[in-house]
Amino acid sequence: MFKILDSFTLALIGTVTLASLLPVHGQFAALMDGVTTFAVALLFFLHGAKLSREAVIAGATHWRLHLLVMACTFALFPLLGLLLKPVLSPLVTPDLYLGILYLCMLPSTVQSSIAFTSLAKGNVPAAICSATASNLFGILLTPLLVGMLVVHRDAGSQGWHSVLNIVEQLLLPFIAGQIARRHIGRWVDKHKAMLKYVDQGSILLVVYTAFSAAVYNGLWQQLPASALAGLALCCVVLLAVLLLATTLLSKKLGFNEEDRITIMFCGSKKSLASGVPMAKVLFAGQSFGALILPLMLFHQIQLMVCAFLAQRYHQRYAEREAANAGAEA
CA–CA separation, 226 vs 228, rounded Å? Predict the structure, then answer.
């Protein structure tokens, strides 16, 4: 069901390779920046148009579960990023560490969190609501956290300026998409498979322009192979700690197995689809290629690890069902 290297991951690798070999710069880079700004606005407009109100309402009453997922996503994750700095910093460059800190502040994924929860036989309605809410709150919480923890103190009102930029470039298109859903919702629902290419194309555009600027400024000359290996280790450590923390916390708080599965998958993952466009807005005017590299690597690691875990849960569920059927017979 889940490939180690899916087509989108291969496209990401190809985009980074293309940007490394043929980086855009000068006037063409400015033109590409305008194109990516439009593409990101379109991306969030379609996110708004795709999101049904029923999906938001489903499972919304399970407030304890949602609070725990939010706490893991926007409190525990950033706290770990800060507390583990003495361990993580020696393994990577300063820019890569900032990228790790940035990924710690992002919302959870939507599609893969729901898919993994469904495969593992978790609480799917709660996963839909929790992952959706994470992304909605993330539009505001992520820039606030970045303003407090990543942007330098001498940047003045940069944190609030980032929030305003997010509202203008991401939230307003999202709201416009929600308003337009009553008119285009059926068409959007019918063409979801086609529209995923708009999502992925927008991300690839941002990655290409970001890495072009970074490569033009000497990214690969400044990034030793040891730092990339250290980055992979950092991502594995972060994911392992969050998987363990969500599992232990959900058990300690008395959630049943279905809810524990949902909490684990929704509370331990980070969204590439939201993180890359947000980086374009939050770090506008800066070379942020190195900042999104940790997110791209973490994204692939979380998919592989969570796919394995989801399949294990599914197998255990199937064995339990078979045992129950045998006992009844």
Answer: 5
